[in-house]
Design goal:
Elements lengths: L5 H40 L5
Length: 50
Amino acid sequence: MLIRNTENSHEEDNAQMQNDIDNNYVSLVTSFIKEYELALRELANEGLEY
């Protein structure tokens, strides 16, 4: 049975959680940009200026 050092495991868990948060944030921002770009293209196709 592997026993992890408690302090190290907490640091690793915190680092993993922060990494997950960062990845989720990047994914959210990327999705927003793609949707925004799509909306702008639709406006341009309708002949509206943005």
